[in-house]
């Protein structure tokens, strides 16, 4: 079983604005202590806060507004400082499902592996940039399996890895909904240029810049989704329910046929999942 960080290590990470374990990114409730009693309750695990609850809970959470979004997210750091460079890896072009799916999917095979991750998680970034391209080349491009991405936006009633995580999740779903052929390019652009998770960088302005750099059509629709807390709320909640059912407390995790692996901790087990799916 993966070793959890000590309370001292966790508090140091929390001071830096992060919640990271040795095998991936976890929420605060799943990181401290580690006992079963500290895991969120059934209602907490699957509840997406509504707009009024979210606004009352935190002044940091930005709601839909006609006022331009502030770009300053932490003293001495701004999203204006982010330079977007072309990724060194590519997941495009790749075959897309013949029919539109609710969540981003590559490949058109019924054997589907699901990647649970977070746009803000550096461990998800590590998997996306160092392992996923080879798996796509070996298993997805030949038509043997499909891969679906589901971004975890909340844990219980709290945003997962920062108040800007839900905005990043909504922006990604908007890219998939409006321009699926550009999604996997957008996907690699965001992870290749991902700022540190302690910064609240998932602002509508930067997310729109990512979309523009990736060639996404109608970047304004991405901004609208990022700023609207009601956008894609049902899909976000279904992902929380699914993650709960698979007992996923840390990301990234890959799920196939009820089997869950941690790719940044045990890459071989994840590869075996792909091989099993390809053999079906």
Automatic annotation (TrEMBL):
<dbReference type="InterPro" id="IPR036249">
    <property type="entry name" value="Thioredoxin-like_sf"/>
</dbReference>
<dbReference type="Pfam" id="PF13462">
    <property type="entry name" value="Thioredoxin_4"/>
</dbReference>
<comment type="similarity">
    <text>Belongs to the glutaredoxin family.</text>
</comment>
<keyword id="KW-0249">Electron transport</keyword>
<dbReference type="InterPro" id="IPR012336">
    <property type="entry name" value="Thioredoxin-like_fold"/>
</dbReference>
<protein>
    <recommendedName>
        <fullName>Thioredoxin-like fold domain-containing protein</fullName>
    </recommendedName>
</protein>
<feature type="region of interest" description="Disordered">
    <location>
        <begin position="30"/>
        <end position="80"/>
    </location>
</feature>
<feature type="compositionally biased region" description="Polar residues">
    <location>
        <begin position="46"/>
        <end position="72"/>
    </location>
</feature>
<feature type="compositionally biased region" description="Basic and acidic residues">
    <location>
        <begin position="36"/>
        <end position="45"/>
    </location>
</feature>
<keyword id="KW-0813">Transport</keyword>
<feature type="domain" description="Thioredoxin-like fold">
    <location>
        <begin position="111"/>
        <end position="271"/>
    </location>
</feature>
